[in-house]
Amino acid sequence: MDSASPADLLARAVVHFDRSETVAARDLALAVAGSGVPALRAQALTLAVKCHQVLDELVEALALAAEAFEVCWAIGDTASEAVVHATVARILLITSDPVSATAEIMTALEVAEASGDLTALTAATAIAGVVYYYLEQFDHCFEFCERAAEMARLLGDDNTNGAMIDTMACANMCLAENARKAGDEPAALALSAIAQSQSREALSVARRTGHRRHEVTAIGNLAESLAFCGRADEALEMLSEWRIEPARDTPSILTHYFATHGTICLAGGRDEEAIGHLRAALEVAESKASEMTAAMHLADAYERHGDLRGALDTYKIYHSLSKAVASEAAQRSGHIAVVRMDTTRAKAAAEEERARVTALQHANRELLRQSLEDPLTGLANRRHLDELMAEGLSGRGILLVDVDHFKRVNDDHSHMVGDQVLRLLAGLLRTACRSQDTVVRFGGEEFAVLLSNSDLPDATVTAQRLRAQVAAYDWDSVAPGITVTVSIGLAMGDESADPGVVLARADERLYAAKHAGRNRVHGPAPAVQPAI
Q1: What confidence tier does 247 reach under pLDDT thresholds 50, 70, 90?
Q2: What is the DSSP code (8-state) at residue 494?
Q3: CB atoms within 10 A of CB 483
Q4: Which residues form the GGDEF domain (predicted)?
C-alpha cells in the first residue's frame, strides 16, 4: 500500500473497477479491507466481492462475502450489505442454483429499500435484471433493467445505465430467436432491430466511459444481432475494426471478442477465419468453462472445414475440459454450500446480538428517562433541571411555582385527590408554556419552569398567565369545595453567572409572593402584582 490514505485507495479502486481494470481494483480493495477502518472495510470488502465474481473467482467471492456480511451487520451498513447480497445472487445463478439466486436477490432488494441508499438500490435492481435474464423470465428482466437504468441516470451512473441497456438487448435477441423458431420471421426481425438499437446505445455509453468489458460485450451482441438478420459481413467488418489493447484487455475481454468473431464466421461459412479466431479464444480463455465453449465451436469449425483430425483432437480437448469443469463445479458447489451455511449461521448470530444490543439500548434509554422524569406527573425532575441550568441561564428566565395551602387539600380531601391536583396542575403548566420551555416538578407541591429566549417583560406575562389559568380552572371537577391557586417567584438568568444564585433569588421571590398574600407573582421588578 502506498502513502495514500485508505479512503483515497478505495476511491482509486472504484475507478479501476469502473474502467474494467478488475485485478487492480481487487488488489486495492483487499488492501483497504485490511486498514481496520470499519466503514471503509465494509465498502472495500463489498467491492472485492464484486471483483472476485467478475474474475470468476467464485469460491473466494463467497468466502469474502461472509466476512463482508459480518462487518456490515456489525456497523449497520445496510447499503453495502444489499450490494453483497446482490453479488451473491449472481454467483448462485452462475453455479446453477436459480432458486437460491432468486431468494438472494429478493433479500438484496429488501435490504436496499430499507437502507434508503439509491446507489445500493440501483445495484441490487440491476443484478435482479440480470438474474431474471438468465432465468429467461424476460418480463421481469425488462422491468428490473428499465428501473435500474432510470435510477442509474438519476445518479449519473453511465456504466450501470449502459449495462442495463445491453442486457435488454440480449433479452430481445432471445425473444427474436424464439420467434424465429416459432416461424414468426417478421417478429424475429423486429425484435432483432430493437436489440441492435439498444446495443448501439450501450456501445456508445461504454466508449464514452472507457469501460472495455462493456464495450466488447456490446460489440459482440450487436454483431450477433446483425448476423441474425443476414448482415454477417457488416458484423464481421465491425468486429475487425475493433483494436485489441494488450495493456488493458483482460483474458475475459479477449475470449469474448475472439469467440464472438469465430462463431459469426462459422455461421457465415468462413471456416478458416472461424478456426483462427476460435483457436485464439481457446488460448486466452480465462476459465476452463470458457475453454470448453471455445473448444466445442472450434471442433465444429474443423469438421465443417473437412479437417476431421483437427475436429477429433479438439473434441478430445472439449471432452477433457467438460469433465474438469464438472469436477470443479462439484467441488465449488461443496465449498459454496459450506460458505453459505457459515454465512447463515453468522447472520443468525449477528441478528441475535443486534437484538440483544437493541434491547439493552432500549433499557438504558428507559432508565435514563426514568432518572430524569417525575413518575407522578410525567414532567422532568429536579435532576433534569440541574442539567439544563448547568448549560447556562443567559437569555432565560426561571419560575418557581408553589401550590398555595396544599396541605389543606391533602388533609381535607385525601392524598389521592392531592396527587390528582398535582397531575392536573402539571398539565396546565405544560399547556400554558411554549414548546421550547421546560416544566419541571421541583419537589412536593413545587414546580419550576425554565423559559427559553425570554426577557423580563415576556417572563412576567408568562408567569401571570400561568397563575391566572390555575386560579380559573374548575377544581370542583376534581373534588367539591377545592380551591387551588399558586404563588410564583421569578428570576432572570442574566442576574448572575451562577445558576445557583439565580435559582435562590427565584426561591426568595416565591416566599415573598406567599408572604404578600399568595396567588401572585414576585419578580426582580420592585412591584407586587395584585391578585385577580
Answers
A1: confident
A2: G
A3: 12
A4: 394-526
- Please enumerate in sequence order all residues whose Cβ is within 8 A of that of 41, keeping only pairs 6 or more positions apart, or say none: 32, 33, 35, 71
Interval 409-431: pLDDT, tens: 888 889 899 999 999 999 999 88
Q: Tell me which DSSP letter residue 486 carries.
A: E
Residues 25-54 pLDDT 10s = 999 999 998 877 888 999 999 999 999 988
**Domain architecture of the chain: domains with CATH:** 1-76 (1.25.40), 243-321 (1.25.40.10), 382-522 (3.30.70.270)
Which of these, 132, 41, 38, lies nearest to 86 by C-alpha position? 132
Phi–psi pair at 393, nearest 5 degrees? -115, 10
pLDDT at 70 over 60: yes
Which strands form 486-492's sheet, in the order they lie side by side?
438-443, 446-451, 397-403, 486-492, 521-522
pTM: 0.60
Q: How far is Cα 370 from Cα 349, in angstroms, rounded to an integer?
A: 31
Asked whether 49 and 68 are in contact (CB, 8 A), the reply is yes
Residue 144 in grid coordinates? 428490473
Reduced to 3 states, what is the DSSP secondary structure of residue 487? strand
What is the b/e burial string over 289-306, where b = at least 16 CB atoms within 10 angstroms of the residue's CB?
bbbbbbbbbbbbbbbebe
CA–CA separation, 119 and 473 (whole Å):
58
Q: How many angstroms separate the CA atoms of 161 and 145, rounded?
A: 9
Contact between residue 503 and residue 490 where contact means Cβ atoms under 8 Å apart: no
